[in-house]
Design goal:
CoA-Trfase_III_dom_1_sf; three-stranded mixed β-sheet; 15% strand; 36% helix; transferase activity; CoA-Trfase_fam_III
């Protein structure tokens, strides 16, 4: 927890209730507890600075619920969530080891198929993959605009130029402060982020987790996606509390609307690779001109320095690259990659992004604007630094006792959510909007007319 405390500039010392440990050779549950403790501590400090409380509220984290919030929080009542993985996605054996193909998105699937020349099924793909060496196949798919990751050991990753670059990066990369007018919003004791506008330009999964968290404390979150974009397997999970709109940023009109949204936003959360916003005419100076006090919370997969800086990636791929899946294989005494029991890098990064946003908001009250950047690979290094957990497990599946009684009427049907894992005076987590499909709203802030 010390590294998280130092990165956020907070003294984090929660009261922890509950018991159990997610089954892994890594201390995933400890990371979950510390991530939520960071949110609670950051919010308590912000509320005190706002004058909503006289002193920071004590923070209590439920160990079991924190672990479960590192997975799916939504529990459909009478309907089912779509499958998490595309049929072609997964781990494949090569000539010299293992590789993971991530094919949930159509353009990533097509990139892998162009290299392999197969049908989009495991039965067709597996024989073709066995003709490749893992690093060669990874490089070929990446060159085609796809995403894949060869499995390496921790020692191999630590000797890899990208692994060394990531290890040298801070857990949170804070920007130099920019002076702006002190920030004000309509926060109350039970909705401390009410009145804040957060523009969400993120996709699967860490960024949406961060913005869902901020929405849970009252912020207005507007998520923007390209027309036709979909992430059916996670949208019911991460759109809770948000308005979601489509916007074509390849058109002049779309970029004009985005600039208007930015000019009224308090926080921008995005996961664009280096150069992407510049290609849209939104370099740092332009963004600062549009919104001088804008706080930016950004992330990428493989870090901000080194030869892989800006490489596309996802949690499951970083686990393969960084040695986590290999170490899990040895721990589980199996002959194939053994990942973490959940997308822990995504969830931890997302919750820490939310905590950093609250720290930045607190500083903005005095007119000092700070932005922060994260990477999944650096979060992997944080997890790897934790002592190995005690052998104490509980099932990954939740029980009815873990669920809130409230029924959420989502776009897909009724559902329940896990009970909040975080408690403290004023730390009330709840959402003003229920999960919705992408594109269900117009690309405008609430209260505006077209």
């Amino acid at each position: 927890m010390r590294e998280i405390s130092d990165a956020l500039g907070l003294e984090i010392s929660p009261r922890v209730t509950g018991s159990g440990q997610l089954p892994s050779c890594y201390a995933v549950t400890d990371l979950a507890v510390h991530s939520f403790a960071a949110i609670g501590t950051a919010l308590a400090g912000l509320m005190m600075e706002m004058g909503l409380t006289r002193e920071p509220a004590p923070v209590t984290v439920d160990r079991r619920l924190a672990s479960l919030w590192f997975g799916f929080s939504i529990h459909p009542q009478g309907w089912e969530l779509p499958p998490v993985w595309d049929p072609m996605a997964g781990d494949y054996e090569t000539i010299d080891g293992w590789i993971r193909l991530h094919t949930n998105l159509p353009h990533h699937r097509q990139a892998a198929l162009r290299v392999l020349g197969t049908e989009p099924t495991r039965d067709s793909t597996a024989p073709a993959v066995r003709e490749w060496q893992k690093d060669d196949l990874e490089a070929a798919i990446v060159a085609q605009g796809g995403v894949a990751a060869a499995m390496h050991s921790r020692a191999e990753w630590q000797a890899n130029p990208q692994g060394m670059a990531v290890a040298a990066e801070p857990l949170i990369g804070w920007s130099d402060p920019v002076q702006s007018a002190p920030r004000q919003w309509e926060g109350t004791a039970d909705r401390p982020l009410k009145g804040l506008r957060i523009l969400d330009l993120t996709r699967v999964l860490a960024g949406p987790v961060a913005t869902r968290t901020l929405a849970g404390y009252g912020a207005e979150v507007l998520r923007i996606d390209p027309p036709g974009w979909d992430e059916a397997n996670v949208i019911p999970e991460v759109t809770l509390g948000k308005r979601c709109a489509h916007l074509d940023l390849k058109t002049p009109q779309g970029r004009e609307i985005l600039e208007d949204l930015l000019s009224q936003a308090d926080i921008l959360v995005h996961g664009y690779r280096p150069g992407a916003l510049e290609a849209l005419g939104l370099d740092a100076s332009r963004r600062r001109l549009l919104s001088p006090g804008l706080i930016e919370i950004t992330l990428d997969a493989y870090g901000w320095t080194g030869p892989w800086a800006g490489r596309r990636g996802f949690d499951s791929l970083v686990q393969m690259s960084s040695g986590i899946a290999d170490q899990g294989m040895n721990w589980a005494s199996t002959d194939k990659p053994h990942p973490l029991p959940c997308q822990a890098l995504d969830f931890a990064t997302g919750y820490l992004m939310a905590a950093a946003a609250m720290v930045a908001l607190r500083k903005s009250l005095s007119g000092s604007v700070h932005s922060a950047r994260f990477s999944l690979a650096r979060t992997a290094e944080l997890l790897a630094s934790y002592p190995a957990p005690e052998i104490q497990t509980f099932p990954m599946s939740s029980s009815t006792d873990d669920l809130d009684e409230k029924i959420e009427e989502t776009s897909w049907g009724p559902a329940k959510r896990l009970r909040p894992p975080l408690h403290g005076s004023g730390l009330i987590w709840g959402w003003d909007r229920q999960a919705t499909e992408l594109g269900a709203s117009l690309p405008q802030w609430a209260g505006r007319t077209p």
